[in-house]
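Lest this sound abstract, we think one record worth quoting, the chain in one-letter code, the fold tokenised, each line plainly labelled:

>
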Amino acid sequence: AHRSGLAPCSDTAVLHQRLVGQLARRWREPDEGIWEVRGPRRHFVHSKIMAWVAVDRTVRLARDGVLAGLDLPALISLRETIHHEVCTHGYDPVRNTFTQSYGSQELDAALLLIPKTGFLPADDPRVIGTVEAVQRELSTPEGFVRRYPTAGDQQGVDGLPGDEGAFLLCSFWMVDALALTGRLAEARVLFERLLALRSDLGLLAEEYDPVAGRQVGNFPQTYSQEGLVVSAYLLHRLSSAPAPSLELVTGAERPRPVLPQIVPQSA
């Protein structure tokens, strides 16, 4: 809302302050992660990165004068603490990749979001290594991406037996990650393959079964369609600009339009 030039709302500011206060108290706790996996709670790297994102955006809003009454030095320190912890405990230097959770060997497609959040730049060797590792270990022969490793008849990292298809949203995340790390031609090839999966109405399901060769799961799936739109926009942006600026996808600063303030009308 702030980026679009909407006037700040005092109620929203109060809620934001309370939420970031809760985050500061609880970000070290384990959780079930973006995929709500069963079993013991873990320190999922994606969850910690999103905690960093929340603090980072709060710092920016405070610097822009949108949020008042915050302890900015404390927030900056918290942002640095989260970043350091993730890079220390969520990164495997031997394999040159971030992992699904602290101390684990498994990968997670959600790690592909790291360059889009601004947590690390797309040309950081750790980001490049993570993209390569996810592509190598979680991709189907067609290049579509699974959320995380599955274990067939055995119980997998999600606490469930059995396999699942490639997750189409994660496959679009791979398109974005390839594009951002300079592999634009590969990103376009994968994007075209994903487009070819659409129904006659242009719709996508939740997953794609590479064995049966068909879409499976919830249909139509909104976040698969959202992934398509985001990837299409990113590819267009990177292809059309001679010196592309990635602020819309990495959270970097950009000029904000000035719009008239909206004053609520009394009933």
